[in-house]
Amino acid sequence: LFGNDHTLWVYATVEDETSGISPFTDKYQYLTKKNPDFGVFSDFLSCNSTWRSNDWWLMITPPFTQGVHSADIITLKTDFCDNDWKVCKVVKFYEEDMAGNSATKDFCINGPWIKFRGEGTVRANDKIDMLSEATGDNTDGVIETGSGTINFFTSTKDDEVRNSPSPQDYDYQTLYNMTKNRNALGSALPTSNGVYTKNGDLTITNATIPNGYSSATFSNIIFVNGDLIINKDISISANSAVLFVVKGDVKIDKSVNNVSAAIVSDKTIYTAYGISEGEGSATLNLNGFYMANKFEFQRTLQGTGNSDTPSENFVYEPKYIVKLRDYLGTNNVQWKTIN
Fold first, then answer.
1. Residue 156: how many CB atoms within 10 A of its CB?
2. Most confidently modeled of 93-97, 271-275, 306-310?
3. What are phi and psi of 252, to 5 degrees?
4. For residues 131 and 257, which has the higher predicted lDDT (pLDDT)?
5. Residue 338, Ramachandran bin (φ over 0: left; ψ between -120 and 50: alpha; else beta)
6. Which one, 102, 197, 224, 307, has the greatest CB density within 10 A?
7. What is the pLDDT of residues 304-316, one digit of tens each?
8. CB within 8 A of 174, min separation 6: which ones?
9. Interatomic CA distance for residues 62 and 146, integer angstroms
10. Residue 329: left if φ>0, alpha if ψ -120 to 50, beta else—which one?
């Protein structure tokens, strides 16, 4: 499933273990709320065109050697007439092999959704209005919004706070002013404790991540006076913590699958930077905590992957609050015994 709003492509894989796939017979039709039966519109990008009941559109089949037994097929970008992804879109595929054997199959196509675990708070200063409904609940913590709107977003605890006033804003400058004894960041991510600064963009690549980074023990904060560009998975041990405080955007490349860090951005966090319309990606796993002025959730899974798998999977880890308290001035955690 790809696309924006109510238009999308659908990607599928077909297999035939006998006589091979035919490149000329792949086709599809679909259901919409406007019509009771399968078919297609005469203009596949306009629901105001003529509905052709029981008709088909041909699929896009990439070139392959004749006689192969597996192929990827993609629909045309198609208008499904509504944005109600709480109800899945049903697509019927038709495939015929070289011997003339044919088969049809219906697929229920869901929109992408995000998941939060770790019993943290999910907050939006405005509304929460998701594209589609999650499998189960989106979060196991509190849902908090600055408005009264929470659509397609639920908690296992049924805990919601609506019309909540905005909390104190911890942006780049605020957090920077709370620290001291800062050190200039070198060419690689540090594996020692402390506060580090980078003047300009910071790009995470194989060269930026030193050997032993994922197993080292450290607690540090890295201030990035520019954009943070993540082109490589970031893994740290359970005993470590790293907080990136970013004045610009955070651009997580479409090829990245796992990020273990806390990130605060004054601008936008992009979850699949560089992705093109019509391109799928794998689930992005984000362990830590994440704050930004805006989130661009760009990922979607191919085929029917959105049915039971989130496109972005967040796991809140409270260790960051404890491990970084010595570097954030008065913003410390104090443990007290109470009756």
1. 13
2. 271-275
3. -90, 120
4. 257
5. beta
6. 224
7. 788 889 999 999 9
8. none
9. 47
10. left
Residues with Cβ < 8 Å from 247, sequence gap 6 or more?
172, 223, 224, 225, 226, 266, 267
Distance between CA atoms of 252 and 31, rounded to whole angstroms? 35
Q: What is the pLDDT of residue 325?
A: 87
CA dist., res. 205 & res. 110, Å (int): 33
CA angle 208, 209, 211 (to 5 degrees): 130
Say which residue the tokens 């082109």 belong to. Answer: 231
Whole-number Cα distances in Å, 211 to 90, 110, 235, 332: 48, 41, 12, 32
Total-model pTM: 0.82
- pLDDT at residue 338 is higher than 90: no
pLDDT tens-digit map of 4-51: 455 555 555 655 555 555 555 789 999 998 899 999 999 989 999 999
By the 8 A CB rule, do 323 and 241 touch? yes
**191 in the Ramachandran plot: left (φ > 0), alpha (ψ -120 to 50) or beta?**
alpha
The radius of gyration of the chain's CA atoms, rounded to the nearest angstrom, is 24
Structure tokens at 226: 């520019």
- Residues with Cβ within 8 Å of residue 169, at least 6 apart in sequence: none
- Spatial distance between the Cα atoms of 246 and 255, rounded to a whole number of angstroms: 21
Alpha-carbon dihedral sign for residues 132, 137, 141, 144: positive
CA nearest neighbour of 262 among 215, 325, 205: 325
d(Cα 82, Cα 32) in Å, to the nearest integer?
Answer: 8
